[in-house]
Design brief:
By secondary structure, this protein is an alpha/beta fold. It is built from nine helices and eleven strands. The strands form two sheets. Strands 6-7-2-8-1-9-10-11 form an eight-stranded mixed beta sheet, sandwiched between helices. It has a three-stranded antiparallel beta sheet with strand order 4-3-5, with no helix packed on it. The N and C termini lie far apart (69 Å). Bound molecules: adenosine-5'-diphosphate. The site of adenosine-5'-diphosphate (ADP) has 17 residues, from helix 1, strand 10, strand 11 and helix 7.
């Protein structure tokens, strides 16, 4: 033990005070240029929530709307793969307490802010926790950490001027979801479901979460995904593999619009895997989503 470790002992070379690390105080200022914030949610995983969110963002961009997408699915971020941006490393900008830019290697003192620049591709600004994890790395979060990561994906990002910011929420309706949707100034939510009954009963929990008085955010409508399958050799046939009418029944029950029905299309899966979403190159998929996007804009 050094003599200077004793309280009250004179130390001729006192250690320099360490700069205080900035606390994670995230305000809403990065959202100030954003017109509307829409959560894309589902009761359970695998219904195509991320696929719908990504393709909807691209469709809106192709319609001339300024759009961003925050992949808040902190447990299974899929935006980097779906958009072919998994190698992107978002830039970080540092600002002092007065909002003046600082060099990236500046010592961070209290009041400094680090802002992440979203990845731009297909005319959309993308942000995902996946950009900060190694590919294939499992993301394990305890509740409060997940909640913070999720808020960072929204509040610490340089969104700039946007007409719409979509948030791809993690599936489910737990405490994390409630605390997140309570704190974000959401315009409303879009609920994605498949037509079959199991998905519907799960998805009702999601609808109820937004309608819960604690949360109280409007449901803009339902998007039914994987509504039918049309084989290439039988273009007039529709096979209702997962049942029929579930999305419509749900919409009617809650008095909200059915914003669209998206068929099962091979190119949707293939293009999601190869990093060029179907809305970029598949005409029928783009058309199906354009009518959904128009209904959202009309609301
Ligand atoms: P979630 O976000 O709800 O977990 P994903 O968007 O990851 O679901 O979709 C799950 C899988 O289903 C992905 O492989 C995706 O490519 C595929 N998929 C989603 N929607 C469609 C569709 N309309 N047609 C074909 N495949 C689809």
């Amino acid at each position: 033990m050094e003599p200077s470790d004793f309280k009250g002992v004179y130390n001729p070379n006192p250690p320099k005070p360490k700069p205080k690390k900035r606390a994670l105080e995230l305000g809403m200022e990065q959202l100030s240029g954003v017109g509307r914030i829409i959560a894309v949610a589902s009761g359970k995983g695998g219904v195509g929530k991320s696929t719908v969110a990504v393709n909807l963002a691209i469709t809106l961009a192709r319609m001339g709307i300024r759009v961003g997408l925050a992949d808040a699915d902190v447990y299974g971020p899929s935006v980097p793969t779906m958009t072919g941006t998994e190698r992107a490393i978002p830039e970080v900008e540092v600002y002092d307490e007065l909002g003046q830019p600082l060099p990236i290697d500046a010592e961070l003192t209290e009041g400094c802010k680090e802002i992440i620049v979203p990845v731009a591709k297909f005319g959309v600004k993308w942000m995902s926790i996946g950009y900060f994890a190694r590919p294939g790395q499992a993301l394990i979060w305890r509740g409060p950490m997940a909640c913070n990561a999720l808020k960072q994906m929204l509040l610490q990002v340089k969104w700039g001027e946007l007409d719409y910011l979509l948030i791809d929420l993690p599936p489910g309706t737990g405490d994390i979801h409630i605390s997140m949707v309570q704190d974000i100034p959401l315009t409303g939510a879009i609920i994605v479901t498949t037509p079959q009954a199991v998905a519907i009963s799960d998805v009702e929990k999601s609808v109820n979460m937004f309608l819960n008085p604690q949360v109280n955010k409007p449901i803009l409508g339902i998007v039914e995904n994987m509504s039918w399958f049309t084989p290439a050799e039988l273009p007039d046939k529709r096979y209702y593999i997962f049942g029929q009418g579930g999305g419509e029944a749900l919409a009617n029950k809650y008095g909200v619009p059915l914003l669209g029905r998206i068929p099962i299309v091979m190119s949707v899966r293939e293009s999601g895997d190869k990093g060029i979403p179907a809305a970029m190159e598949d005409r029928p998929v783009f058309e199906a989503l354009r009518s959904t996007a128009e209904k959202i804009l009309a609301r």
